[in-house]
Design goal:
145 residues; two-stranded antiparallel sheet; 2 strands
């Protein structure tokens, strides 16, 4: 079945979900086809919250829509790959903070480049102005939270 035909019958929420899933799949495949370090979408999501910051693990847990247990699992995997460092917080024995390693920052920045290439492909297909409008619409306050 033609994928455009299948999309025509979807409501806004399902359209957003379908496009998001497709973009994440393409983005993940683009990274994993050119790198020996496999990084899942969930790991990218966590890395995005950490990039150029040094947040506490509890901050990441509150600001990432993944279960606390899963976040800890992903952070262990990221640390094992050498992409993040987990350190104690000064003057706080319970809290730990996390930051990207130099390798983690390098991977993150290369992946940002791959996503920019994907965005450019979309712009070539639907138009730069349409992409700008879509981004503006998605950034608006929708009053639904």
């Amino acid at each position: 079945m033609d994928s455009n035909f299948a999309l025509q019958n979807l409501d806004l929420i399902d359209l957003l979900s379908e496009r998001h899933s497709l973009l994440r799949k393409i983005s993940e495949e683009a990274w994993n086809s050119q790198s020996e370090i496999y990084i899942s979408n969930s790991e990218w999501y966590i890395m995005a919250r950490i990039y150029k910051k040094r947040p506490t693990i509890s901050y990441v847990t509150k600001h990432v829509d993944i279960s606390r247990q899963a976040i800890h699992k992903f952070m262990k995997q990221l640390a094992a790959k050498g992409l993040i460092e987990i350190q104690n917080v000064e003057n706080n024995k319970k809290e730990k903070c996390v930051q990207l390693t130099a390798l983690g920052e390098d991977c993150y920045e290369k992946n940002e480049g791959l996503k920019a290439q994907l965005e450019q492909k979309i712009a070539e297909k639907i138009g730069t102005e349409q992409v700008a409008i879509l981004k503006e619409l998605l950034q608006l306050e929708w009053g639904i939270e």
